[in-house]
Recover the amino acids of this structure.
């Protein structure tokens, strides 16, 4: 690493100041507030608050609604991750086998990533809208009565598709890069060794792709758990009957709509702990190359 | 075991690059053939067409008496050793060796037997449970060889398998490969750009230039009677002197020649020899001395014993039987 010597002791701090300020104002300070609030309870009018220890956390674990949210989040995160990574891998393998038009497809497939989550949510909300959408119409032809406003399953499917769709682009790019890093001779050797295309994929390509896959696994879980707020807000708002009320949406809902600051803060702290855990796992294992 | 026949083989890559053309080679059962030529002359392309990794655009490849043009690599009964070894990094050495057999549903006991045997031949027994990344370059090379021999294929294909090794190991592995092939008697097609490797390994050499065959013959035939000026300059180290006949018009026995070739070791100091050489540089190789210079404006090199007296100009003589004469335009041999 190159070390630069600053004569002026103040200059380096000045250069860092804007970044430090942003980190402090938008991250550290709110995080600190959340932690503080999670140990407090406000009175009914929001005037006085008192220290209540772990009561907010205990309350959460006793709440059927919160436990439901945990379950919904798990189902949602796993579905989004599996779907976005599965589809992306399929597309990447297809593009990797193409020589001529690979660039065109890559460009097309990257577009969705540029779409804001809220816009993606509304887009899919329209496509699946029971009155004006095209999908319910198509599904009706095959005999399925789509209604994500009343059906819990339909609502979950809608938010999973809307969230996964956007992430496919991101995963696709990483998978394509990962595939191109595998020497062609490896697959050629396997072909001579008598492995057909499917075998080659599962015996050679997929294991060699595992560092990429693992990295994306963590990124996608984090995405599904924390960055899909706008998708939920634009489509189901957590409904029907809590069926899509994932943790991050519940934090917002209980805090801003329900005005239950203490409980909302405790939920934030739990989310923070989850992020930290995932990040640690990420750093621990991505460094040691997974699988080989 | 099988013979291999390349019949008018040619390759044009999509995009129109012609990499190989008009190649005819008959490889006998058990023969060790080396394809040699400068970088980009189409050696790998040719080998990969035999392996089935590259489509054949012209002509035919036959292994045994089967035309294999449309047959998958797996079903051609060949094994290939790649330049970068292409070992599967996530599998142990044992799994690497067994993979091809497992895919062919070889019984477990048979796999075990062949892996143990190959490991013994190649002395990689102690590493069987290691991953390739925990091996040295030479050991990886052996594993790559092992992966080929456990299959007991009709033919081995090698694409510059030694070029990633250091010079000393290369010489050692070269001997081992030759030894192994002699023992197994498996038909082999071996690609290299190293003419020394080619000379020492080959039963017969195929010299390629620009995708075409310049000469096929035993190493000695090719060395003694190069079919063209290109082969003459490529085979042999130090390289043969190739002089433009117009620069040395007075040389005896060179009528009609466009290019005159004479190997540095076939030149000697002679008081009234026909060549006058102006010395420009001397390389001491220990056992001998390489003297570089000019005659009639053409570069010329001579090997001399280390104690030979040197002066600024030398008079050189040669035996007429050692002259190689080539046509000016085509480079073809005329004597
Ligand atoms: N996939 C390809 N598409 C187009 N042209 C190619 C392709 N592969 C090789 N070529 C061209 O074909 C010619 C022969 O290439 P090849 O790899 O067979 O050479 P080589 O003799 O093996 O060289 P080297 O000693 O450097 O490995 C070269 O001119 C090369 O540029
Ligand atoms: Mg090559």
């Amino acid at each position: 690493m190159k070390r630069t010597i600053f004569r002026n002791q103040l200059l380096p701090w000045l250069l860092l100041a804007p970044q430090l300020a942003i980190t402090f104002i938008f991250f550290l300070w709110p995080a600190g507030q959340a932690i503080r609030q999670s140990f407090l309870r406000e009175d009914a009018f929001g005037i006085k608050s008192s220290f209540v220890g772990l009561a907010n956390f205990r309350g959460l674990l006793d709440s059927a609604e919160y436990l439901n949210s945990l379950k919904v989040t798990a189902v949602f995160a796993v579905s989004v991750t599996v779907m976005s990574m599965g589809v992306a891998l399929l597309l990447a393998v297809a593009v990797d086998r193409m020589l001529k038009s690979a660039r065109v497809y890559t460009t097309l497939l990257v577009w969705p990533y540029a779409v804001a989550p809220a816009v993606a949510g509304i887009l899919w909300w329209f496509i699946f809208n029971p009155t004006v959408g095209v999908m319910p119409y198509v599904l009706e032809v095959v005999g399925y009565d789509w209604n994500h406003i009343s059906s819990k399953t339909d609502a979950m499917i809608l938010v999973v598709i809307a969230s996964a769709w956007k992430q496919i682009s991101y995963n696709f790019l990483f998978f394509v890069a990962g595939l191109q890093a595998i020497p062609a001779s490896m697959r050629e050797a396997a072909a001579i060794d008598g492995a057909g295309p499917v075998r080659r994929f599962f015996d050679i390509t997929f294991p060699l792709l595992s560092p990429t896959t693992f990295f994306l696994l963590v990124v996608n879980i984090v995405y599904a758990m924390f960055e899909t707020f706008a998708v939920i807000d634009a489509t189901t708002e957590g409904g029907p009957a809590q069926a899509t009320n994932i943790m991050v949406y519940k934090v917002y809902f209980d805090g801003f709509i329900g005005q239950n600051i203490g409980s909302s803060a405790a939920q934030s702290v739990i989310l923070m702990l989850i992020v930290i855990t995932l990040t640690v796992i990420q750093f621990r294992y991505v460094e040691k190359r997974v699988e080989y | 075991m099988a013979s291999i026949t390349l019949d008018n083989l040619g390759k044009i890559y999509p995009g129109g690059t012609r990499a190989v053309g008009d190649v005819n080679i008959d490889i006998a059962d058990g023969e060790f053939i080396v394809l040699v030529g400068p970088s980009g002359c189409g050696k790998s392309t040719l080998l990969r067409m035999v392996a089935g990794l590259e489509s054949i655009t012209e002509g035919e490849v036959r292994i045994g008496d089967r035309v294999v043009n449309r047959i998958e690599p797996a079903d051609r009964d060949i094994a290939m050793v790649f330049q970068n070894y292409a070992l599967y990094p996530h599998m142990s050495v044992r799994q690497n060796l067994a993979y091809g057999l497992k895919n062919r549903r070889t019984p477990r006991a048979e796999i075990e037997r062949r892996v143990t045997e190959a490991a013994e031949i190649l002395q990689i027994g102690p590493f069987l449970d290691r991953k390739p990344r925990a091996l040295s370059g030479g050991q990886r090379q052996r594993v790559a060889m092992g992966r080929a021999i456990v299959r007991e294929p009709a033919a081995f294909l090698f694409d510059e398998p030694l070029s990633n090794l250091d010079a000393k190991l290369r010489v050692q592995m070269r001997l081992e490969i030759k030894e192994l092939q002699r023992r197994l008697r498996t038909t082999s097609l071996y690609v290299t750009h190293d003419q020394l490797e080619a000379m020492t390994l080959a039963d017969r050499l195929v010299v390629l230039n620009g995708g075409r065959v310049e000469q096929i013959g035993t190493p000695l035939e090719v060395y003694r009677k190069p079919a063209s000026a290109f082969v003459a300059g490529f085979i042999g180290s130090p390289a043969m002197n190739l002089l433009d006949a117009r620069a040395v018009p007075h040389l005896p026995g060179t009528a009609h020649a466009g290019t005159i070739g004479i190997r540095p070791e076939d030149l000697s100091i002679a008081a009234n020899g026909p060549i006058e050489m102006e010395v420009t540089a001397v390389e001491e190789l220990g056992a001998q001395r390489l003297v570089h210079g000019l005659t009639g404006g053409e570069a010329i090199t001579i090997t001399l014993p280390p104690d030979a007296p040197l002066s600024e100009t030398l008079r050189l003589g040669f035996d007429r039987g050692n002259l190689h004469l080539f046509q000016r335009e085509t480079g073809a041999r005329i004597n």
